[in-house]
Amino acid sequence: MTVHSYTLPDRAILHLSGPDTLDFLRGLVTQSLTKLTDDQPVYSLLLTPQGKIISDFFIAKKDDDLLLECPASVAETLKKKLTLYKLRATVEIEDVSHVWTAVQMWGEEERLEKVIAEAPAFLHAYRDPRLPALGVRVLGPTQAKPALPGEVSRAEWDGHRTALGVPEFDRDFVSEQTFPMDVNMDRLNAIDYKKGCFVGQEVASRMKRKGEVRKRTLIADATAPLAIGSPVMAGESTLGEITSTAGNQGLALVRLDRLDKAGDTGIFVDGQTVSLTLPPYLED
């Protein structure tokens, strides 16, 4: 197996600095920042007070400062939200996307471990905190971007994450419309329910405590290409819809109660039979 590399074109980087940065952020985001080290960033969310996702992001340490790698489409919104919550905290928030680049790498484990071990100090090279099988995330200065092995297309990256059942912002969900459990964020290491306060905690914790998981994002397999937005049907019942695709495979946001009620009824998308399976990380 070789190593595949994909330079992510639609990512933005926010630089947070100031003496109150860590305390300020830990009271807002869903993941515990005690897990954040110089060598290992964390994956987290900022929620609305109603518990829906504003943005997901990776948080990395840069000396005494923090870097938030987030979707470019929501970077300005995220910056404004953080500024709104800042109040009297001594924190500066700057968009530095023009000088940073994010890359995803996956494939041969031995070579990936070597990438992490031999990364120069100015690069953040780390195991993807969402799911180890996703590979390695690399964040570094654009001007110092090294030559990458096995550079591939967006389609190949989508195929990799789709096969693993990992939803992605701007493809499988958008800002302020989706609960974390709908897109499996509670099982992709985005939330620590024991960390203490975060925005939207009351709603998120209640859904977990009561087991109110109404929707999940599942893997859909077909014999012909699937189309984004197509309804997933069982007889006359709409179970959900296809949210992203990679050839004959896609991800589907599905109502679990309707799926259970469908029983052995055949499942179809645009007239073709489709099988729905749980991503492996949801099976235990």
From TrEMBL:
Q: Boundaries of each CAF17 C-terminal domain copy?
A: 214-281
| Domain of life the protein comes from | Bacteria
Q: Which organism is it from?
A: Aquisalinus flavus
Q: What is this protein called?
A: Folate-binding protein
Q: In its UniProt record, which GO terms are filed under biological process?
A: iron-sulfur cluster assembly
By its UniProt entry, which Gene3D superfamilies does this protein fall under?
Probable tRNA modification gtpase trme, domain 1
InterPro entries from the xrefs? CAF17_C (IPR057460), GCVT_N (IPR006222), TrmE/GcvT-like (IPR027266), YgfZ/GCV_T_CS (IPR017703), YgfZ/GcvT (IPR045179)
**UniProt keywords, alphabetically:** Transit peptide
Q: Could you tell me which residue ranges the GCVT N-terminal domain spans?
A: 15-107
